Every structure is written in structure tokens, then in C-alpha cells.
Amino acid sequence: MPLPSPSLEERLRRLSRELCAALCAVIHGAFEARDVPHESPIRPVRLTSTLGLDKSLASRVARALSSDDELRALHSIPTPQGLSIIAAAALEAGADAAALGRLGAVTEDYRALLAEFSGGRSDLEATLAGWIPEQRARADREARRSVFRGMTTLSGTRASAIYNALYVMPSEDGEHLDSVVVGVRQDLRKLRSDASLVVVGLRTDPERVEPTLERQSVAGRPLEEDPAAIVLPDLCSHPIPPIAAEEWRDELVVGIADDALDVNEFTTLGFAWRTKRHFPSVASESLRFDHLTSCLTRPTEALVVDLFVHRDAGWITPQVTFSAEGRAPRRRAEGPGEEAPVPTDLERAPGGLASAHVRACPAIAETVCREAGLERGDFRAYRACIELPVPGEELTLWWPRRTREPDGSRPETA
Question: Taking Cα atoms as reference points, which of 26, 5, 141, 142 lies closest to residue 78?
Fold first, then answer.
């Protein structure tokens, strides 16, 4: 009966041990041939002075040989080309031929392993990062940076931050929550003359069972009469560029007029609108949660989303989920799930409403509350954030609806 094939992790660990052992033997052999004292751990400066390796290659070798974990060591091991450079330098320094032969053989095994990955070394590093938490975090950030750079080229636009906020408060009928939606597009610019700067698209959620909701400016003006009324001048840089709005696929698309900004000219645009009876406040059998989903289609350095809950809506505790495009339905009866994390409670955060990514968040809240006739002290605020979000990635804040008592008395938080 054939033995089961070793797992990929086992193969990687074995290869790492063999590579490190062979590399260590070759290096110490070269040191002995040059009468260089043994040292442990091997320092990069000794590799550069004795073998003539460049600093980057020497640092990778030293990091690999000093690691106490095989997968971390393999993550630092140079490519087969780098190992060939080391072997050639060690041969010139007088390293033992048998040790060089062992290094050559295991280097070929290494090359064969890389051939199994369609992306070669980069794919192997991505695989290794799955077992190394600190490398995974670093790899994720570098990958996001690469996507961000690529998307700025493809879209011809960028922003330093996208800020969305939702204020929810009880409606007059006691059965719903009114809302004020706020958005700030910070340091928005186009990098190509033909790029378009879309600010927001307004449409009714096709999965929502309520009829089409009437949206108004925070001052109560119907947006159908003037879509540009969503702009709040105190949240914008000046002069405010001309705003354009058009219907497209049952969506009202609001953006900056095509010829309003020169290439690489910055602007910050803030807007808000209110909706009466936006969300049912009482849970039903099928729907126990409501939510706010933010999804990016254009490159930005940070997506920041705040939820402001009025005290008369109950001090509910929201949850947050992050998902790639298409992974999470916009409406789920089960809500975010028990394991979903809780967003930052800004009332308890050391910096309060201040954000590392969005300028003047406290001033934004003051302006919105003033324009909408709200009291900031009546709301509790929560925040979630994604740095360098990938286009299509979703950030969803969920909050529970309240359940009605059997006798029909005041609802309590679900």
C-alpha cells in the first residue's frame, strides 16, 4: 500500500532545512578557506566583506540562517539565481566542492518546487505568508499598495480618503428610523484629462421591500428638483467645482463636471441627504438587522465609515463585516453572524471622533448636526475603517432592530 504524499507544508519545511544546512556548510567552508573566524549568527557584513555579496542578498541569507522557524527561513532564502551567485562566490573563495555539490542539488529541488507555482517565487511567498502572521500582514499591505497604484493608472483618479457616515434616529411614527447620510470625498483629483469624478450614485436597493424612498437635502428640499442640493458648502474646499447629475441605469449619478478641474487639481467635496422612515425599527421574523454597506469602485487611500445612533433608538451595539465583491449579500435575515467584530466605540476612544485618515471629523459632525437640526450629544458614534481598500471590497456596519414586547409595549433592542 503506497504511503500518503507529504503535505505541502511538510515539503516546504524539509526543503527549508536542506537549503539552510547546505548554505551554512558552503558559507563556513568559504570562511575557513579565507581564515575567517566562525561566528553565529552570521552577520551580513561578514558575507559582504568575505564573499562580495551585495547588502540585500547578504541580509536575506543572514535572516534565513538565523531563523528558528523553517517556514520563516524559507521566506528569506534567496531565489535559485541568488543561491547560484552565492555558490559562485564561495567557489572563488575556496569552499569545499562536496558542500557546493550538495547546495547545487538542493537548489535544483528548490527550482523544481517553484516551477509548481504558476507565479514562481511571488506565489510561494504568498503561500508562506499564510503560515506567518507578520508576513501575511506585510504582504497584504504591499499587495493593496500595488492594487492602488494599478487602479490609479486604470481609472485616472484617486482620493486620499472616502468618508461615509449614517445618522439614524426614531421617526415620528415610532415604527421606523429616519436617516441622514453624509459623505466626504477628500483630496479628490483626476490624473488624466478624460477621467470622470463620480461622487455618489443614488438608487433604491432592489432587494428592499419598502417602496422607493424619497430623499431630501438636509434642509428638506427634494433631490429630484436639484440633485446638487446634497452638497454642503462647509464640508467642501473652495471654490466648489460645478456639480453634474444624470440618470444612468435607474441610478442618479452625481459627480464633478468633466471640465471643472484641471489634471492633478485637488478638491474636497462633502454632501448629505436625509430620508424619512428609511429603516423599519422593529424586527420581523425574517429581518432582525439593518445595515450600511460601503463599496469602493475608485482608488482611495482609506475608507472610513461612521454610524451615529440616536439615544432614543436604544444604545444598540453594531457589528462590522468586511468582504470581497460578491461574497456577502446586501440583505441577510441572519445578519452579520455571531463572530462579526464590534466597530470602534468613538465615545470611548482616546481621540474621540478624530481620524488619522479624514481631516476634521469632529467639525464634520458639528456641521451635519447644525444643518440637519440635530444635537451631537444625542448620538453615540461607531467607526470601521479599511486602509487601501481594493475596488469591490465591502465594509458593512450592521445594527439590530428592536423587538416588540408581546403586549405591544415599547420595543427593546433585539
Answer: 26
Residue 244, amino acid: A
Per-residue pLDDT of 304-331, as tens digits, reads 999 999 998 876 778 888 876 444 444 4
Handedness of CA 123, 124, 125, 130 (dihedral sign): positive
In this structure, what DSSP letter does residue 5 have?
Answer: P
Estimate the share of the chain in helix, then strand, then coil, as percent rounded to the nearest 5: 35, 25, 40
- Report how far Cα 206 is from the mean position of its chain's Cα atoms: 26
pLDDT tens for 9-60 read 999 999 999 999 999 999 999 999 998 887 778 899 999 999 999 999 999 9
Quick one: 158 exposed, middle or buried, by C-beta within 10 A (0-12, 13-18, 19+)?
buried
Banded model confidence at residue 1, pLDDT cuts 50, 70, 90: very low
* Distances from the Cα of 407 to the Cα of 404, 410, 414, angstroms: 8, 9, 16
Q: Which three cell numbers stand for residue 269?
A: 467635496
Could you give the CA distance from residue 266 to residue 264 in angstroms, rounded to a whole number? 6
Cα distances from 298 to residues 292, 302, 324, 390, 392, in angstroms, run 19, 11, 15, 9, 9
- Phi and psi (nearest 5°) for 90? -70, -35
Does position 209 have pLDDT exceeding 50, yes or no?
no
Burial classification of residue 327, based on how many CB atoms lie within 10 Å of its CB (0-12 exposed, 13-18 middle, 19 or more buried): exposed
Q: What is the pLDDT of residue 413?
A: 47
Return all residues near 92 (Cβ < 8 A) that are at least 6 apart: none
Q: Helix or strand or coil: residue 379?
A: strand
State the alpha helices, DSSP H only, in 116-233.
121-129, 133-155
**Grid coordinates of 350:** 482616546
- DSSP β-ladder status, 215-216 and 267-280: antiparallel
Residue 162, CB-side half-sphere exposure with 13 Å CA sphere: 24
